[in-house]
Amino acid sequence: MPLSQLKFINYPAPKESRTSRKREKAGSNPILSGLLLAILSRVLAASTFVQKLLWRLNGFDKIKHLPELEGYGARSDPTVIPVNTDDGELLHLSELPRPRNRKNEEAYYTIADYHDAYLSGKLTPLDVAEFLLPLITRRATSVSQYAVAYLDIQPEIVLAAARASTERYKSGKPLSVLDGVPVAVKDEVNLKGHKRCLGSSQDFKHKLDATDWCVLKWEEAGAVIIGKTNMHELGLDTTNNNPTWGTPLNPHNEAYYTGGSSGGSGCTAAQGICPVVLGVDGGGSIRIPSSFCGLYGLKTSQNRLSVFPAEHGANTVAVCGPMAPSIDDLALAYRIMAQPCPEDPINDMWPSTITRDALNVDGSGKRYLGIDRDWVARSDPVVLDMFNTAVQYYVKVHDYEVVNVRIPLQAENQKAFSLTILAETMTTISKERVQQLQHPNQILLNVSGMHATAQDLLASNRLRARAMRHLSWLWEQYPGMLLLTPTTPCAGWKIRKPSDITDGYGATDADMTLRSMEYTSFGNWVGTPAITCPVGYTEGNVPVGIMALGQWGSEEQLIRFGERHEGFLGEDGVRRPTEAGNWVDVLSEAKKQ
């Protein structure tokens, strides 16, 4: 079904946006770590004058003065709902496309490999759970390179789920191909029987002990949730440097961060512990770890996949989404988790993700790739080279047509996004709690979260409306177009010095944070889905990703793009870590115990 046949609620009226404004030179923020970071966080907490000075120096006060906002109303929620008047026949989970097995013995295991091992009787879900739990459980005296990716594991819950799955296989009645497969979820989501600390030392667990809808759908399909993963505190940066819980290192090159804020999920998937994991995407915290860790990652436009949607921020669209080394696994995980939730009247308007019509949603007959050349050119040369090589592949092999487009005011949109998400954070956390956060977040929230006025927020949301209407105009010109960029303009984020992750203070580099979010924050700001695909590796074995942003409701079209992208990776597919010990052969090792 072409996207053009879908009907929408809240679809923005098309309007081309132009500007002659040149991109302002980025401000220069100091890199802070160690004792200096701790001292400055205390100074800022005590001085409103210094907070406001830094607010102005970073240009947050300029958005409300943009002349380009004239004629645009404020849009505080970017949610655009695709509505299919006839959802069609619901498929049983067993009728969904089955993931393929891994291509060779050097590749990552897929969901199908686990399922086949269980069907054969050579291995059971309980065998896998009993093998993984000692590996990922934190010890009082030490935390292993695998356990640092996890914040909360409840062995009794894990083993009970694994036993139930084992019995289903013994009786020949698995619930789906996902039955018994180990998966992990970011600490940000609610999971019954588990803590929820948002990567902090504090308790943010909801008074209702319940599981978020998207995770519940995985559980109903038989998945074994083995634990909650490490994250950057409150999800407010892109490194996953976490002084409280430890910092997961990039399995491909341990001198680099995994990316954040869903870095624990990205790390454990890259290590081979789970074939699919769940992240929560605010400023790119599914796609950045996916890119840094060499995975596929899907950010959806369906922003209410929680039983407590307000906790994830509707205005900035923090959404749950899967990461996986396999595009097939990514697709299956998305289709299962994103089924409409009848408990939420907004979410329930979405068409089902498990009908034949839904699986066939695609773009127009012509395949367009929209590229803003000036924007893409801001990437590092090694990233740009890989990006251009991939574009040539799409054009030659899959008949995509490249169209040159402009996305006006990218820097201003990113600033408005940051202003809004930080102001929203301050509506859900008290000043007393801010004082208990890690030092980088104390600085961030005291400077950027405290001083947004109603005028600033309204101006930001007028800018959002402008960006959404421009995108709508582009899709009117080029139906089904995918906006293509690198996932991040940089090839990973190198850890500056060992003490940045060991001294208990943490580290902050605001300029690098903004740079890493250069492309990923835009999709969250305007509410569109996006997929990141692994595109190559630097000489230092650091993964690089490419990102396609699609029209509202185009998740299946993006999955088609990911499937076509597979050919670019060649016969070997996604590369697993090359260093010994950085990848776990779960199925082989579980058989030996």
From TrEMBL:
Q: Which PANTHER family match?
A: AMIDASE DOMAIN-CONTAINING PROTEIN, TRANSAMIDASE
SUPFAM superfamilies per UniProt: Amidase signature (AS) enzymes
Q: Which InterPro entries match?
A: Amidase (IPR000120), Amidase_dom (IPR023631), AS_sf (IPR036928)
User: What's the protein called, per UniProt?
Assistant: Amidase domain-containing protein
Look up the domain of life of the source. Eukaryota
Q: Which residues are in the Amidase domain? A: 137-558
Pfam families documented for this protein: Amidase
